[in-house]
């Protein structure tokens, strides 16, 4: 596995390039996805963190007033803290680029690939990283080919236990661990409640960690891994958003070489998927090897989220990290989403 | 060369940041809640909920929410209320903004007796205790009657907010069957006898006789008499919750159970649906010994119920045709009920059935076997329609084949659109059911009921 070439010492926190801050930051949160509530919590925290650094912040939902409002604030930088569809699937980012509005985070096309687990996993696997065995299935295929035959084939191919997830979505919504064939149909129905395509993956047993990658103007740097130990054994919605139900260790309790590999993997994912500014890669350490589960272009920033913990562990307040990201976006300016072929 | 993060084994300063040495970090080991080991046992289950979070989406204008129970108070005469409040502040402000009696102000207790008279109740103001909405009446009644582990009997299904109160006092809820006339007396008798035979303490039966939330059914007078007879026979206390009784569409109100018995019934009432919920004024009418304890419990809970709200409501009742206003409300709700029933008739797939309420806010829908309304809710929200899954109204995880639709807040046009969207959602769910089979059966793992329903300020 080759390390990315750009930058040096990029898992070491370095002071950002001294960049001017914009007059106004528009924090986008809410939206109509299933994760609206989480997004509102993340957005409030990011907005408060930016205000603590003296920035002028406007919190905005995503509705028909947004585009005119952005037109009235030409010098603003947008910080999208939208989870789930529209926010993470790239659609809104395409619009921001179209409007020439500078924004924090990955561009639309990269977000679209990263958000869809069925596509992102393939790209990451093609880059030589370890991923679970995965099958992506739209619900129509079960109807057309017969559920029984497909369920049996999944059992043979993936084996039990397996994970069933909606292909697009976060916060573990619609995700189930399936231990027996009898549980699979209900798990599929549960995943399809959140979207038309589900992925079925081999269940990877091991230590759960998540690694944020942040670019504060010097190239991407991995923050220390956050190890996640939910009391219930399952890092589901309740374990994610109920303070006290999950133990977080940062840096993770890992041998130094494994911690390095986790940082390498997160940086490789960030680079291979063409991500920008900020991402968070979720991994399971199995037999000392990090296995890629998914990557988030708008990672959670709530009171119980991992990225703020990692930022603080690295010695930066969340406000400092967010302000640096805003400064980088402001310096970059608004650019068209469509990149001309080389 | 990149560095892994070094970790200090002993407490120390934060990350080194000179850029030349591996940074030395002090490992954080946190649950993000330093009080996690100190909470009372009754907080168990007070967790984040994915279903509850969906109602944040349902509250957006793009979504037709048939989930919430907010009364539509747009028809209130705000000019009348406004000038009445101005008079109140200018003329009696020093009294209205002062502490008041723990039992509630004498004037409003007299007025409450007039309100209850419309449903056949003859009561003395001394036996009325004013509360912060009838929700607090329920809380105080449970507080004075129930120890942890006591059993409260509830209809199947029952009001989600009541289940939350019983849970918070660590009571066990046993559900009792209903039919098209509400609580089934014979099932009530069997439940009481079986529980007592098993050594359980049954403290009371909680019932909503008129325009039931969520089931939409109403007990006939004969049914009320039969329920009371079982209560007499088994020496059971009845807690009668009647928020919607005056919001009937067709006939005069059926006499309350309390009108049939002075000493076996604790009766809960509210101004939230007949006037406005923001004042947070309800009441409990109870036999004198019970009332004494309710007043002491109220004093320890709030010192006194909101004085200003009590004066405001008293003035409204004195200065406005409040009974005429209730008729205006009822007509408006009837039109919405009709829209709901028409929309359901047009849009529900075969095999779906629903109740036809003669008043109140809610229709209770039963889906064909195998459907799971709770699992289906994300799909509905994607289709921009919301409801409350039936599981919210059961303490034991049952109810997944049901859902509650409310017609109180959206306009008739929006209600029709909501039923169209719900029809599409059910059609797609039926498609999935036919593909995967109807493997869902039995109860879900019980979740806190209030996790499965929207907050009071959500449409």
UniProtKB/TrEMBL annotation, chain A:
Pathway: Cell wall biogenesis; peptidoglycan biosynthesis. Residues 121-327 form the ATP-grasp domain. It catalyses: 2 D-alanine + ATP = D-alanyl-D-alanine + ADP + phosphate + H(+). One of its GO terms (molecular function) is D-alanine-D-alanine ligase activity. It is found in: Cytoplasm. Belongs to the D-alanine--D-alanine ligase family. This is D-alanine--D-alanine ligase. Pfam families: Dala_Dala_lig_C (PF07478), Dala_Dala_lig_N (PF01820). One of its GO terms (cellular component) is cytoplasm. Mg(2+) 1 binds at residues 282, 294. Cell wall formation. It is an enzyme of class 6 (ligase). Binds 2 magnesium or manganese ions per subunit. Keywords: ATP-binding, Cell shape, Cell wall biogenesis/degradation, Cytoplasm, Ligase, Magnesium, Manganese, Metal-binding, Nucleotide-binding, Peptidoglycan synthesis. Its cofactor is Mg(2+); Mn(2+). Mg(2+) 2 binds at residues 294, 296. One of its GO terms (biological process) is peptidoglycan biosynthetic process. Its EC number is 6.3.2.4. The active site is at residues 35, 171, 305. It comes from the Bacteria.
Automatic annotation (TrEMBL), chain B:
Its cofactor is pyridoxal 5'-phosphate. GO terms for molecular function: DNA binding; pyridoxal phosphate binding; transaminase activity. CDD domains: AAT_like. Keywords: Aminotransferase, DNA-binding, Pyridoxal phosphate, Transferase. Residues 1-27, 438-459 are annotated as: Disordered. Belongs to the class-I pyridoxal-phosphate-dependent aminotransferase family. This is DNA-binding transcriptional regulator, MocR family, contains an aminotransferase domain.
């Amino acid at each position: 596995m080759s390390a990315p070439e750009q930058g040096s010492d990029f898992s070491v926190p370095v002071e950002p390039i001294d960049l001017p801050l914009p007059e106004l930051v528009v924090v986008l949160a809410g939206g109509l996805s299933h994760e609206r509530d989480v997004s509102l919590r993340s957005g409030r925290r990011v907005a408060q963190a930016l205000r603590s650094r003296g920035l002028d912040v406007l919190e905005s939902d995503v509705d028909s007033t947004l585009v005119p409002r952005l037109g009235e604030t030409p010098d603003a930088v947008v910080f999208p803290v939208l989870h789930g569809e529209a926010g993470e699937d790239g659609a809104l980012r395409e619009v921001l680029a179209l409007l020439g509005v500078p924004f924090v985070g990955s561009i639309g096309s990269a977000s679209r690939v990263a958000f869809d687990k069925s596509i992102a996993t393939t790209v990451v696997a093609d880059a030589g990283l370890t991923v679970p065995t995965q099958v992506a299935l739209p619900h129509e295929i079960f109807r057309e080919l017969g559920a029984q035959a497909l369920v049996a084939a999944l059992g043979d191919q993936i084996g039990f236990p397996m994970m069933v997830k909606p292909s697009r979505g976060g916060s573990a919504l619609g995700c189930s661990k399936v231990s027996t064939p009898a549980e699979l149909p209900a798990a599929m129905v549960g995943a399809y409640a959140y979207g038309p395509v589900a992925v079925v993956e081999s269940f990877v047993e091991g230590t759960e960690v998540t690694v944020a990658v942040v670019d504060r103007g010097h190239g991407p740097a991995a923050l220390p891994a956050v190890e996640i130990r939910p009391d219930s054994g399952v890092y589901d919605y309740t374990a994610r958003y109920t303070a006290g139900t999950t133990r977080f260790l940062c840096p993770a309790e890992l041998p130094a070489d494994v911690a390095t590999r986790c940082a390498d993997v997160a940086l490789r994912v960030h680079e291979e998927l063409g991500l920008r500014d900020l991402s968070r890669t979720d991994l399971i350490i199995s037999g000392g090897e990090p296995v890629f589960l998914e990557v988030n272009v708008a990672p959670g920033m709530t009171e119980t989220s991992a990225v703020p913990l990692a930022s603080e562990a690295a010695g930066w307040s969340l406000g400092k990290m967010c302000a640096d990201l805003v400064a980088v976006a402001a310096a970059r300016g608004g650019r068209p989403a469509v990149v001309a072929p080389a | 060369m990149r560095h892994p993060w070094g970790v200090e084994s002993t407490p120390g300063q934060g990350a080194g940041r000179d850029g030349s040495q591996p940074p030395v970090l002090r490992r954080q080991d946190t649950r993000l809640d330093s009080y996690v080991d100190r909470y009372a046992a009754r907080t168990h289950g007070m967790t984040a909920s994915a279903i509850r979070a969906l109602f944040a989406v349902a509250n957006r204008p793009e979504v037709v929410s048939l989930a919430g129970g907010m009364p539509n108070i747009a028809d209130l005469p705000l000019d009348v209320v406004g000038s009445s409040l101005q008079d109140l502040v200018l003329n009696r402000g020093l009294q209205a903004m002062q502490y008041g009696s723990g039992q509630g102000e004498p004037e409003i207790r007299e007025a409450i007796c007039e309100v209850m008279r419309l449903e056949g109740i003859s009561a003395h103001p001394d036996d009325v205790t004013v509360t912060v909405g009838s929700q607090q009446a329920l809380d105080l009644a449970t507080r004075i009657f129930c120890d942890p582990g006591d059993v409260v009997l509830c209809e199947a299904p029952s009001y989600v907010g009541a289940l939350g109160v019983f849970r918070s006092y660590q009571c066990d809820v046993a559900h009792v069957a209903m039919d098209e006339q509400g609580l089934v007396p014979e099932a009530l008798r069997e439940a009481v006898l079986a529980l007592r035979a098993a050594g359980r303490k049954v403290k009371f039966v909680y019932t909503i006789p008129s325009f039931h939330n969520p089931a939409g059914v109403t007990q006939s007078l004969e049914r009320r008499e039969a329920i009371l007879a079982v209560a007499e026979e088994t020496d059971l206390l009845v807690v009668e919750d009647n928020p919607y009784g005056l919001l009937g569409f067709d006939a005069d109100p059926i006499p309350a159970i309390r009108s049939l018995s002075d000493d076996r019934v604790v009766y809960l009432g509210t101004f939230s649906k007949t006037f406005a919920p923001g004042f947070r004024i309800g009441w409990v009418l109870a036999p004198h010994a019970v009332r004494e304890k309710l007043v002491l419990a109220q004093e320890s809970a709030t010192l006194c119920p909101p004085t200003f709200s009590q004066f405001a409501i008293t003035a409204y009742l004195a200065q406005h045709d409040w009974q005429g206003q209730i008729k205006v409300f009822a007509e408006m709700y009837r039109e919405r009920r009709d829209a709901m029933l028409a929309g359901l008739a047009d849009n529900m797939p075969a095999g779906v059935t629903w109740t036809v309420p003669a008043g109140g806010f809610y229709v209770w829908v039963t889906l064909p076997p195998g459907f799971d309304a709770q699992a289906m809710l994300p799909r509905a929200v994607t289709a921009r329609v919301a409801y409350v899954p039936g599981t919210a109204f059961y303490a034991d995880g049952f109810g997944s084949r049901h859902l509650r639709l409310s017609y109180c807040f959206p306009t008739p046009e929006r209600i029709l659109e909501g039923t169209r969207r719900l029809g599409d959602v059910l059609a797609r769910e039926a498609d999935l059911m036919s593909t995967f089979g109807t493997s869902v059966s039995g109860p879900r793992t019980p979740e806190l009921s209030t996790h499965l329903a929207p907050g009071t300020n959500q449409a």
